[in-house]
Structure formats: structure tokens, C-alpha cells
Amino acid sequence: MGMPFGHMACSWTCPMPLCLEPYVGFYIFIFLLNFTSAFIPVGRVSHSSVLINRNLYFIGGYRFYDYSGSIIENTTNEFFYLDVSKQFTLNDSSTIPWNDLTNTGGPKLASTAVCSGEFNDVIYVFDGKNNEIVYEGLTIYQYNLIKKQWIDYNTKVKRILPSNRSHNSCAKFNGSMIIMSGKYLHNDLALDDAWLFNTVTSSWRLSQNHENLILYNTNTDEWTTRKTYGTTPPGRVDFSAVITPDRRVIIFGGSDNTNIFGDLWILNIETFQWSIGNITNPISDLLVSGHTATLIDNYMLIAFGQFPEHYPSSKIFLLDVSQNDSYRWVTEFIPKQSNFIK
Question: Could you report the per-residue pLDDT of 118-150, keeping only the tens digit for each?
Fold first, then answer.
């Protein structure tokens, strides 16, 4: 007389929309999984990098292609980091632990100088090329790692300022930072000055204005020149350099504005002796400029840059520098557990 039991169950206890609801949610979840991919940075040149704790941060640069493959030539505000507390292999990009922070809304910049704050809780970015001059005098951008936000730092700075510049470099010591040389943003003329920035008082002071700045004594605020020995590297720009705990300065790549280099040079700063780095497994076609290099444990990590024919690199390379008389390219990054910051 009544409906079959099966019909009653579906029409009374589980109307059609409710019956499908769990499955709709399931398929939406699958859709999101299929269309969400890991961040993998594209090629860039004249970016900046800074290592803070076990994160290697990358800021800006020039990108020649966007993520769809379309040609562009402009500065980028991409901001991301590589987690070097984790092991990865260069032969499998899915293992490289990139993390994208671009949505924090940083400035579009290239050829900047970047330093970490005294307590490793902020990143200072000093000027650079961004296709417009926002402030008269060197511009400072600051990223707060705790709050995860960019701060307009320029209103805090006392008004004796270095000139606007790009291609400058910086180093930190004793609560201060030194900004050196670069190119004047208005006309690309080379600068040979050096300025000290006090992060406590937010003020600048001119250190020196001299053509041959070689060695800087952070205790006496004095510059001196020093004779070196051995065959010296050919002149170059847009190269990278790191210093090892045993006092080797390792220089790689760069350009003389005509040729791009892939050579390795070592300066022993105990003896001030130059030597050519002996790479036991050289990569014959690895020529790059406008890249960055960072010393992490026993590795010199070389990131991005420009290959010959103006082709931007999206690659990173690892050079094992643990031996002072021979070097080798490796594809496996194995972090030292003892160096982890708690």
C-alpha cells in the first residue's frame, strides 16, 4: 500500500540536495587540490638576498618573463624565501622549499642593498632602481619579520641623506650599517662614497669619499689600502662574493659589460694572496652575472642571474667550499643540524 522502503528512505530522511552535499564538497576539495601548485620562482637578474636564521630571502630584481611565458622587462616586487633548514635536491624542483611572501606588498626594486637588522627581526632595503624616484635622498624600505609587513621607514630618518643610488652594497656591525658606492640614480654615474647608518637613532653620517676604498676598520672608522699578491682577477661588475670562517673571500662570475664570466677566484685575507679556484667538476657552460651568492654551512648557494644572450636564470647552484684547495658542484643540500637557530 505504501511506498517501497527505499523510496521512503531517500525522500524522507535524505532529500536530494542533502544527499549530494557531501559529494559536492568532496569534488570542490579535489578541484582546489588540482589547481593549487607550489611556488617556483621564474628567472630574474639584479635581485637581492639576505640570510636570516635558516631562511634565505630574495627581494625584487628584473624579470624578463612572467609566469605565463609572456615577455616583460620590468622591476618586480616578488619577495620569497628558501627554507635552508630542510634538505633538498636540485634535480627535483618539488623538493626545493620555496615560500612566497609577495602578497605582503613590498616595493618594486632591482639592484638594491639589503641587510638584516641587529636582532634579525627586520630586513632593511636601501634604495635601488624602481623606475621612479619616490624620495629625494637614499630611500629605505623595511620589512618586519615578526609582524610580516612592510613599513615606510623614510619618515623616521634624519634628513642628512646619501644621494639616490642603485648597485650599492651594505654590511652591518655594532648596531650600524655601512652603505658603499653604487650608481647615481639620476644619470648612472659611479659613486665612490661610503655612509654609516645608525639603526638606533635612524641617522646617516658620511664615512669617506675616496676613490680606492679597500679595507674598512669598523672600530676606528678608517679606510686603508692593502697590496695583494698573485695573479688578480680580470675587472668585472655584477659578480658575487662570500667570506668563509677561515677567511677566504670567494668570488664567482660577473661581467666586463661585454663578456659574462664563470670563473672562481679566491683571496686569502690572512696573506692577501689571490688564487684561481680549482673546481674539480666544472660546468663548462655556466657563465652568469647579476646573480647572488650566499654562504650556508659548507655551500656557496648561487641564485638566478643572467646567462649569455641576456637569458635570465631561474636556477640555483651549490658549490661545496668545505676544502680550501678544491671546490666541487653538488646537487644535494644537506643542512648542518648543529647550526639550526632555535
Answer: 889 999 999 888 856 555 678 889 999 999 999
